[in-house]
Design goal:
The structure is a single chain. This protein is of the alpha/beta class. The chain is about 30% helix and about 20% strand. It has 2 domains: about 5-70 and about 230-400, Alkaline Phosphatase, subunit A (3-Layer(aba) Sandwich); about 80-225, no CATH class. The strands form 3 sheets. It has an 8-stranded mixed beta sheet with strand order 11-10-12-1-13-14-2-15, with helices on both faces. Strands 3, 4, 5, 6 and 9 form a 5-stranded antiparallel beta sheet that branches. Strand 10, helix 9 and strand 11 form a beta-alpha-beta unit. It binds zinc ion. Zinc ion (ZN) binds near residues 11, 302 and 345. Zinc ion (ZN) binds near residues 57 and 60.
């Protein structure tokens, strides 16, 4: 038997902070279970966001699954569309479409104050009723994370964009979409979307649901476009191994579905600090019975990093340790499981953006020879015997498959 659980802490890695006495948030929070993975196993680092691809969670998590971004990165829009069960036609172009807050021309909040799902659903429904046509469809997602699909050959996905969570406090005039080639389709797509953004902003700004909001959801923000994804199924790629994925967010479900893995929905999983941790831990333990790999993704830590709030980030790391890693490891202890812990990418609270710094990794299991690293942290992981991993190395190590 060779079963594994990967604990994926979105955006956990950080930098040493003076206010924490030179420790990182991960180092400052007691994490005995994560530390035990390093102590009983081996550590290393992993390049999840190679140059040339967006520094986003979809790209980073695809890398963790061992998918080559160069070979099959489709853009975040289409991954989330698959995650939501939207059937894309071959000519469709799916875009992430955040509902964001713009005040006096400045992009103030990429999430409209973590827009409530119910408010978001109403706004997206009305956007579809008022602005939906044969050319464009609006799809509601979770909270501010919505989608827009352009239909037909007159549009192009070859359009550059600004990632909203990396562009806060900048003027929207400096954040315009631009063409990546000279085709008339790309030019038309940019014009079409700029007009749509302008028209919908007038409607959203005047919407009664925005009247009393501190962070009104008053603009749409299309980004990361692409066409229908084509991935090699996970089990075909990894010698018939089966995987189950537990998350709250469509982007992770999308990757799982593109990989034809099982997706497990947990009621009350929100992608934030109020998520149903107990439900996710329980689901992971259950899924471990009949899958070779369980991938448990927790989003909240990333969100706290984007907010730039050290204390909140430490609370999210503590919750991840105590409410996910501890119960799952305790329940599966002594049964020969392999455990791995890693973030998909760093979100340093001082920068409030994803960075390409390789992430710290720890893996323990019957086939992993322990090294001298005794706890799990950004500082110690590079000293471990796993070294600097890329591509499929991490996943093949976790699954105990020979390196390629
Ligand atoms: Zn992420």
């Amino acid at each position: 038997m060779n079963k594994a659980v990967i604990f994926l802490a979105d955006g956990m890695a950080d930098d040493p902070l003076p206010e924490l006495g030179g420790k990182t948030p991960l180092e400052a929070v007691p994490t005995p279970y994560m530390d035990s993975i390093a102590a009983h196993g081996a550590s290393g680092t992993f390049l999840t966001l190679p140059e040339g691809f967006p520094t986003s969670s979809d790209a980073a998590n695809m890398s963790v699954f061992g998918y080559s971004l160069a070979e099959c990165y489709p853009g975040r829009g289409p991954i989330e569309a698959v995650g939501q069960g939207i059937n894309l036609a071959e000519d469709d172009i799916a875009w992430r479409c955040n509902l964001v807050t713009v005040i006096d021309g400045i992009l103030k909040d990429y999430s409209s104050g973590h827009l409530e799902k119910e408010v978001s659903a109403v706004l997206m429904k009305e956007l579809q009723e008022k602005f939906g046509t044969d050319d464009v469809t609006f799809h509601p997602g979770v909270s501010y994370r919505n989608l827009l699909v352009l239909h037909g050959k007159k549009f192009s996905a070859n359009v550059d964009y600004f990632k909203p969570d990396s562009s806060q406090d900048e003027h929207i005039d400096n954040l315009k979409l631009s063409t990546l080639d000279d085709s008339k389709e790309a030019v038309y797509t940019v014009e079409f979307l700029h007009k749509l953004m302008k028209d919908t902003a007038v409607f959203l700004q005047a919407h009664p649901l925005n009247a009393k909001r501190e962070a009104p959801a008053n603009s749409i923000w299309p980004w990361s476009p692409g066409k229908k994804p084509h991935f090699q199924p996970f089990s075909e790629k990894y010698n018939g191994k089966t995987a189950a994925v537990i998350s709250a967010v469509d982007v992770i479900f999308g990757i799982a579905k593109c990989a034809k893995s099982d997706v497990i929905y947990v009621e009350g999983a929100t992608g934030f600090l109020d998520t149903n941790y107990a439900g996710k831990a329980e689901a992971a333990i259950k899924a471990a019975e009949n899958h070779d790999l369980v991938y448990v993704h927790v989003e909240a830590i990333d969100e706290c990093g984007h907010m730039g709030d050290v204390n909140l980030k430490m609370r999210a790391i503590s919750d991840f340790e105590n409410k996910i890693v501890a119960p799952v490891m305790s329940a599966l202890e002594g049964k020969g499981y392999t455990f791995a812990v890693l973030p998909d990418h760093p979100v340093p609270v001082k920068i409030r953006k994803h960075t390409r710094t390789p992430v710290p990794v720890a893996i323990c299991g019957p086939h992993i020879k322990p090294d001298s690293v005794m706890s799990y942290s950004e500082r110690l992981a590079p000293q471990g015997s796993l070294g600097y991993m890329k591509g499929e190395e991490f996943m093949r190590k976790v699954l105990n498959l020979p390196a390629k």
